[in-house]
Specification:
The protein has 5 helices and 5 strands; from the N terminus they run αααββαβββα. The chain is α+β, with helices and mostly antiparallel strands. Strands 2-1-5-4-3 form a 5-stranded antiparallel sheet.
């Protein structure tokens, strides 16, 4: 009976610590991911803002056609060459027909964008962040001078930094779990010994005296 009571208390303590650390770790990971994706979107805006301003100016005379996107090819190469963001992978433009209008790799220009994950989540009203294999793509709608959508600029970022931070959080949580659990069990055992087991011993021994 003594062992049963003690074990139940220790199991409850272990379960409580596991639950608290598990929930706090999950919340921390979700907050980290949300903040990282927000940062990616903000970085994408900062990178493409000068190009979007130029496109707005070039279309002020009602100019049509994807050439206003195509001429951004040189700018894309310069951005990548002088890039200060470690996680930036590439930038390219696609037009309304899903053809790549400008890309740092000239061989991809005028080819059809085949990534259905990107194409299915394009949003002409706002930025969208799309999870791909080992990277994230931020899609930024491109509008002409009159506010009409004429395509999108795709900015991709590596997910290595997010993955490393997530692994670090989980690793720290496991270490804390082991430390907290061991400490709690030791304290619990001492308390159980003094408050529960010793009085029972005294009750058992008292008739014999």
């Amino acid at each position: 009976m003594r062992i049963s009571i003690a074990h139940k208390i220790l199991i409850i303590i272990g379960f409580t610590i596991t639950l608290i650390l598990g929930v706090s770790t999950a919340i921390h990971v979700l907050e980290l991911k949300e903040q990282t994706l927000l940062n990616m979107s903000e970085k994408a805006d900062a990178i493409v803002s000068p190009m979007l301003s130029e496109i707005n100016s070039l279309t002020s005379d009602n100019t049509a056609g994807s050439w206003v996107l195509k001429i951004q090819g040189i700018t894309l190469k310069n951005i990548l060459k002088h890039n200060t963001f470690d996680d930036l992978k590439t930038i390219y433009f696609i037009d309304q027909n899903n053809f790549i209008a400008a890309h740092p790799d000239n061989s991809k220009v005028d080819t059809l964008e085949k990534n259905q994950t990107i194409l299915q989540q394009l949003n002409p009203r706002r930025n969208n962040i799309i999870a791909l294999d080992h990277q994230y793509a931020v899609t930024v709608p491109v509008k002409n001078h009159y506010g009409e959508n004429i395509g999108y600029v795709i900015v991709t970022f590596s997910d290595i930094d997010l993955s490393q931070k997530t692994k670090s959080i989980i690793s720290n949580a496991v270490s804390l779990f082991a430390i907290y659990l061991l400490t709690a069990l030791i304290i619990a055992y001492i308390i159980i010994r003094r408050i529960i087991l010793q009085p029972i011993d005294q009750l058992v021994d008292s008739p014999m005296q």
